[in-house]
Specification:
single chain; about 550 residues; alpha/beta; Rossmann fold; 22 helices; about 10% strand
């Protein structure tokens, strides 16, 4: 398939004497009998950038040798008047070491006496380019891993090239050759020699000046054009508004072709630079086109979190955390890692999250029921009779259990009765120890009040403080892990709401984690077989965010 891209306005076609930069891009990927050359036609993607830069561009994809020869003959006709020549050949090559041929789409097994029918001579292309010395670049793109010998004369690849004076040859793979065209050859004041020197994946042969600039300033009418530059202000203004509405590379490129020196030319060029520098722009625009609401974005963040991709909050704002989570999900599911979602991907994420939610809820229900049975059984064996020792034994095992509040209230009543009946010295000593609430304070009480009424309370509180000290490192780590989640107020409210839905009392749903909130989190964690720290981990958050009813 041949394409012709002209860079000047239609009126200029009446002036064939004007010098034009010329470019020819030929790529072959799908051969009829030879192995496919993946990416062979990639170089033709650079046609638009060359056209914007002022080149008359012709491209050919997956065509036969006759079509290739005809295109190169047209290049020959134009080469004498061209200021710059760029030719890119991408496909499978064969060589006899002294000559090199590019194989056409219909080429069969290469034979030394049959190459003229199904291939084009690279040396012939070089001779054509010699007409524009100093400003001619031939770019050869091939699979450098294919170096097999075909027969006693021919082998795959590129042999020694007889490069005419003033012609530069660059050799590399399709991706690097295309990038060199788009990023350097068409860029104003960009040095091809410097670019090649900085990329070990491409090589340069032939003419190698100190600097090789293939594009001077941005596209504009040539100085040799004697006609005055007349600006259609109304037409430019209308086209500019349409261009901004479209906001695409193609739109700004078309605008520059029509008004290369217009009032908005610089703004158009700036917009082109911004678009080219923005990665995944097409993916972003596609996601923008979905017009996702804040609630829909929260649902996506919740689904990703359920799947254990950390979005750093469930706030409906797709920041760096969410984009990273999306990229990680895309990588795991075989999609391009753009960080932006399509409708299909959103549907798939939701389906995966629903399945995972059902699994987690079923597991949690079984574990919760087993723990409740153990809790009730232990209460019957210890605290149900209302004795002080049994109540303390229950609280030691189940500090956040089903009957924890009931047990604590009963023990407070026991303590109040003892305070009313205890001797003054014992009562005063206990008050001092309780206010200090330290291991040393309770040890002092036990030492001085050997028959004190509060010895059981002192031992129980001292044991609780010792447990707290032994778990301080774990608690501190859990606190840091929760802080690393960067939970905002909205996410904290969602957490508190879910705790309340699940039957745990977190206190007011205000986004502030109080002692009641911490106790509710511990109860939830025990029911999900998680470490009962009272601080949220990624695992706890994932399970808490499962919507009710799943």
């Amino acid at each position: 398939m041949r394409r012709l891209l002209m860079t000047t306005a239609l009126a200029l076609f009446a002036h064939p004497a004007l010098a034009q930069d010329a470019a020819v891009l030929i790529g072959v990927e799908r051969y009829r009998t030879l192995d496919r050359f993946v990416g062979g036609t990639t170089v033709t993607d650079a046609a638009r950038e060359l056209a914007v830069a002022g080149y008359t561009v012709e491209t050919l994809e997956n065509d036969d040798a006759q079509a290739m020869r005809e295109l190169l003959e047209r290049l020959h006709d134009r080469s004498a008047e061209a200021e710059r020549l760029v030719v890119a050949l991408s496909g499978r090559f064969v060589t006899d070491d002294n000559r090199t041929w590019m194989m056409a789409v219909d080429a069969g097994t290469p034979e030394i006496f049959g190459l003229g029918q199904d291939a084009i001579s690279v040396e012939s292309v070089l001779s054509v380019m010699a007409a524009t010395p100093g400003q001619s670049i031939l770019l050869l793109s091939y699979d450098d891993k294919e170096r097999d010998r075909i027969d006693t004369v021919l082998s795959e690849g590129i042999g020694r090239l007889d490069i005419p004076q003033g012609v530069t040859v660059v050799i590399g793979n399709p991706r690097n050759i295309t990038a060199l065209i788009e990023d350097t050859i068409v860029a104003p004041q960009a040095d091809v020699v410097e670019a090649v020197a900085g990329n070990r994946n491409i090589s340069l042969q032939g003419y190698r000046p100190h600097a090789l600039i293939m594009q001077g300033d941005a596209p504009a009418p040539r100085a040799s054009d004697p006609r005055p530059y007349v600006v259609d202000r109304i037409g430019e203004s209308l086209l500019w508004e349409q261009t901004k509405t479209r906001d695409t590379l193609e739109a700004y490129t078309e605008f520059l072709r029509s008004f290369p020196r217009g009032e908005h030319a610089q703004a158009a060029q700036t917009a082109i630079d911004v678009i080219r520098s923005e990665p995944n722009r097409a993916a972003r625009l596609a996601e923008d086109g979905l017009n996702l609401t804040r609630d829909q974005r929260r649902s996506i963040q919740r689904d990703l979190s359920i799947l254990n991709y950390n979005t750093r909050g469930i706030d409906g704002i797709f920041g760096q955390g969410t984009r990273s989570a999306v990229s990680n999900w895309q990588q795991q599911n075989g999609f391009a890692q753009s960080g932006y979602l399509t409708d299909e991907q959103i549907t798939r994420i939701n389906a995966q999250a629903s399945r995972r939610s059902a699994q987690l809820e079923a597991e949690a229900a079984r574990e919760r029921e087993a723990q409740l049975r153990r809790d009730r059984a232990y209460w019957e064996e210890t605290g149900a009779n209302g004795r002080e020792a049994g109540l303390r034994s229950y609280l030691e095992r189940y500090p956040d259990g089903l009957y924890a509040e009931q047990a604590a209230e009963q023990l407070e009543r026991y303590e109040a009765d003892k305070l009313a009946q205890a001797a003054r010295a014992d009562r005063d000593a206990w008050t001092i120890a309780r206010n200090a609430n330290s291991i040393a304070g309770y040890e002092t009480y036990l030492k001085n009040q050997r028959r004190g009424a509060f010895r059981d309370e002192a031992n129980a509180r001292m044991a609780a403080l010792q447990t707290e000290q032994s778990t301080a490192a774990t608690t501190d780590q859990a606190n840091q892990e929760e802080a690393a989640l960067n939970l905002n107020v909205i996410t904290r409210r969602i957490v508190e709401g879910r705790l309340a839905q699940l039957g745990f009392d977190p206190g007011p749903t205000d986004g502030r984690f109080t002692n009641e909130s911490r106790r509710a989190i511990r109860q939830f964690q025990r029911g999900r077989n998680l470490a009962p720290t009272g601080f949220l981990t990624q695992a706890a958050l994932v399970q808490l965010l499962i919507p009710a009813g799943n």
